[in-house]
TrEMBL record:
<dbReference type="Pfam" id="PF04383">
    <property type="entry name" value="KilA-N"/>
</dbReference>
<feature type="domain" description="KilA-N">
    <location>
        <begin position="2"/>
        <end position="107"/>
    </location>
</feature>
<dbReference type="InterPro" id="IPR017880">
    <property type="entry name" value="KilA_N"/>
</dbReference>
<dbReference type="InterPro" id="IPR018004">
    <property type="entry name" value="KilA/APSES_HTH"/>
</dbReference>
<protein>
    <submittedName>
        <fullName>KilA-N domain-containing protein</fullName>
    </submittedName>
</protein>
């Protein structure tokens, strides 16, 4: 599944293949706009007993890890599902929570809008492909060995049955 990438305060927040967003990116976005301090890192947020209970409940409900902490490597950082991301934003500053919530909502709505446009386009392509296919079938029936040959054969048989003088007059008119 493709998860929407979001940009908060001009900072892109990365998303992994499991739909978890990078809280470190979100923290950087908050710090860049003066809505968080360096001491409000994701690790501090996750130490709260209340947050630990929430993360466990969410993990149980989704049957997957709602938070994944990676130490070292290209994907290092704290990765969390959207509900944890919004909760972290609220922990930083209520106004920041509102901005993050609206950003996620807009990303989803834009994704739904794009999906609707894509579905409509796919339907149009399918319908036109069917029409073209029907036209191709008709053309195929007309072509070599098809209806055209059948009609021309019937024409030739009629001409063969006609009076030769009448055929000569018809051919003279055609020239």
């Amino acid at each position: 599944m493709q998860y929407p990438t979001v940009v908060v305060n001009g900072v892109p927040v990365r998303v992994d293949n499991e739909g978890r967003y990078n809280l470190n990116d979100l923290h950087a976005a908050a710090v860049a706009n003066g809505e968080a301090t360096e001491s409000q890192r994701p690790g501090v947020f996750l130490k709260s007993k209340q947050v630990k209970r929430f993360v466990k409940a969410l993990s149980d409900a989704t049957k997957s890890a709602s938070v994944n902490v990676i130490k070292g490597g290209l994907q290092q950082g704290t990765w969390a599902l959207e509900l944890v991301v919004i909760r972290y934003a609220a922990w930083l500053k209520p106004e920041f929570e509102i901005r993050v919530y609206n950003t996620f909502r807009d990303a989803i709505l834009n994704g739904v809008s794009s999906m609707t446009r894509l579905n409509r386009l796919d339907l149009l392509i399918a319908n036109e492909s069917k029409e073209v296919s029907n036209c191709a079938k008709t053309m195929n029936k007309w072509g070599v060995g098809g209806r055209k040959q059948l009609l021309n054969g019937a024409r030739e048989r009629i001409i063969d049955q006609m009076d030769p003088d009448m055929v000569a007059i018809m051919q003279g008119d055609a020239s």
